[in-house]
Please model this.
Amino acid sequence: MLLRHTTKEIIPRKALTINPAKTCQPIGAMYASLGINSCLPHSHGSQGCCAYHRSTLTRHYREPVMAATSSFTEGSSVFGGQANLIQAINTIFTTYDPDIIAVHTTCLSETIGDDVNQIAAKAVAEGKVPKGKHVIHASTPSYVGSHVTGFANMTKAMAMYFAKATGKHNGKFNIIPGFVEPSDMTEIRRVAVAMGIKPIIFPDTSGVLNGPQTGKYKMFPKGGVTAAELTSCADSIGTIALGPLASADAARALDAKWKVPCQVQDIPIGLAATDRFINALRIAAGVSVPDIITQERGQLLDIITDMHQYFYHKKVALAGDPDHLIPLVEFLVNIDMLPVHIVTGTPGKAFESRIRELTSHLPCTVNVKAAGDMFQLHQWIKNEPVDLLIANSYGKYMAKDDDIPYVRYGFPITDRVGHSYFPTTCYKGGMRLLEKILDVLLDRMDRDAPEEKFELVM
Amino acid sequence: MKSISILEKRKSQIYRKGTDEFDMTCEKKSLAGSVSQRACVFCGSRVVLYPVADALHLIHGPIGCASYTWDIRGALSSGPELHRMSFSTDLSELDVIYGGEKKLEQALLELIEEYKPNAAFVYSTCIVGIIGDDVSMICKKVAAKVNIPVLPVHSEGFKGTKKDGYKAACDALFKLIDMNTEPLEKIPHSINILGEFNIGGETWIIKDYYRQMGVNTVAVMTGDGRVGDIRQAKKACLNVVQCSGSLTHLARKMEVEYGIPYIRVSYFGIEDTSSALYDVASFFKDDPDIMKNTTRLVQQEVKNLLPELEQIRKDLAGKRAAVYVGGAFKAFSLIKALRHIGMEVVLVGSQTGTKEDYEVLKDMCNPGTVILDDANPLELAKYVLEKNAHLFIGGVKERPIAYKLGIGFCDHNHERKIPLAGFEGMINFAREVHETVTSPIWDLVPRNGIKG
Model:
């Protein structure tokens, strides 16, 4: 059986990934591109890449996901994909008429050495790019990093293509939200505005991948950061990048080229990370924290207080992306839980050391691995069982096999709804996370309680 | 939506019955820059071989190709489920520079040692075709060490269309069959079932029909597939091929090499299922019992399902459907099945249809029906609205488009959970269509001018 394929005995593997906890760069780039208003992502590679990314994003968001492809053939892989891309640019502008095409590469076009920068310039020179329209691009080889890297590369690309300083501050603040849900991007905006900040948020997939049912199909929904906003981000007072892996590159590039001072924060997941985010906003806006935010913080704290006995020393296994896992682990530690097994598929040693710092004082051994996989996580769980599993939908196999209370978190979530509408970031999102965690923990207690101890009040 | 223009180069891939002259262009690569619903060579190979449950499926390439195909197809197994795991060599930059052969060899050896599969399929992805790893050589080398068939699947994404992927999968299956050098002894009244993938348990339904008819099934390729059965496939008297494109190549090859004739069938809908079973029965003329059994089976099954179908038909009569599927053969069956429940097809298209397929479609459809090859979402949306469809039948990427337009949807691709094959499947299909088309939700959502 599928669920029984994980062996308890851990044999070191060198050449092989089993049940991945990551996917490849281009899908991250595609997701980021969808956060630009009137933008069609374009996959410069074989047709399959684009189809797979669209299918995966569609399964996760349950929304139409539009993207075009260069449809590589054997010919293009020998002679280069220039002709395909130029034809594609022409096709896209004449048929679908977006304002922007965001080209990302694939392992194929990277390896044959296509220079997308030069091709895009050629398309402009040949008049294939109508006036006022844009072709931006990011290099996203699938064999480097993960989907998070692709997101970071495209986010940097959109900033660097458009940003142009006028020498006059626009009174705004750039916030790069990282690889989070559209709901989180909305929440981050709400909180920033409540703090008195005028934010430019990029990318911003809210309204694109969590749109309403309107009876109409729109290829380019209303949402997304606009080209004008992206241009203006060089005039902003500063940039806050949320998530070192997904957002820092863009923020640093803006700082280096346009002298927009940047700071890199964790994604505001949980109490402490949100505190840091609010504090950064407070300093940026030069205001004191408004009551509404203080109240939300208090409410989050109130739930933790009310229910803290249920969190006490519960062991947790997690799989996900580094930018999420770091504040999430911090949050779990803060509420007295014990994150004991933590895996990300995304490579990078910084992740392991951050997790080690956050968990060094815990009264248990902590397993942590970057460039790991779900199989590894499952093996750890078999050797040291846990009370809670937090992972994307692929966690469900482990949860069923070992009967573990399970909260879906991350990308992709293909078997539940809610993630694109309800945030897990900032204080409100923290409350929702706690609700989800408590629901599965308490449901488990109810399920396992003998009749005489089956309690109404918990 | 009225302003949506159709690409000049796409015009020959769209046909309106009754108004245009029929000269459909198809079987060509999608135009670069189009938002095609199509996939690649690797995808074609992966979906065909995936249901072989006791084989190891190792994807040689960067992680994406493995991640995106990890357990996304509802092909059920009655036993082992090794096929539902995701194995990848996860090639990194250094591998791309220095080659991935060593990594591949090591991965194969580790996995075969651990899981003791009955065969291994190694899928080449785009990058492998570029960096020039000799996958065949590694497979041979490993096979010699481990004593199971280790088969390369030449499925580099850019080397053609999804159909070429089917072909690469067929080549791998043929190799597996051909390796068996046991004396060729025919099993009487036996068939191989080809192009049936056990989505939602469909293979089990079909196999059971054949069992009731007195026909022996040697191997199913590949639904609930087993390496051992596939290796016996030479012993069958007849290949019964479902699904337009995917396994015809293998059937042809087996006809040439082993003299096994093949017939093409569909198990979707009442007529097609019946004729499939009758066609097989009439092949085994030497045993009149088989035809007798078949007649009895078909009559009983049809009798069982007609009353409910009649009920459903009352609600659905006059409603209009749009169909966009992978293979055109599936579309033929769908048109017939939809007629059974009183629905009219107003748009029909496929990703991989041939010119002959579109000829057949043209003849089947009513005047005014739009026929599309390799459509993009804008075209689909445009014609769904123009034709006032109540139902869309398609796959994962079409579902949200249908819902956004405020019309019902039925998944006829690999993400569905219920069997739609056979007589039982016809009822399931009718129920599913009924469920979605008559849902009260369509009275609540703003529908873009769709009436009636």
About this structure: The mean pLDDT of chain B is 91. The longest strand of chain B covers residues 190-196.
